[in-house]
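Write out this protein's structure.
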Amino acid sequence: MLKFIRSLSFACSGIVLAVRSQRHMKIHTAAAVAVCLLGAFLPLTRLEWAVLLLTISVVFTLEMVNTAIEKTVDLSSPGIHPLAKAAKDIAAGAVLVAACCAIMIGLLILGPPLWHFLMD
């Protein structure tokens, strides 16, 4: 049990480090908070909440994996190397794909009830 608690502590430290040190994690966190606050005022179903929370977690996860890849590449290849650049660019591209899909999902889920709220 103690090992499990230590593992949780390390994982939480990683999340805190990512949010404190990475500009894009701060942006994703602000967007997630805004989406959750907006969703709290709209009549969303449990399924819509589940999709929003899953989408947020995918973006957060990919951003943290991207950061881990960047740090590892920087450690193993301090100089400029085409493979290092490719690894970093591909990881960043994965985050971009997830963030763009998150925006579309947010608009699909939050858009209609927000529109009705504003027009009524």
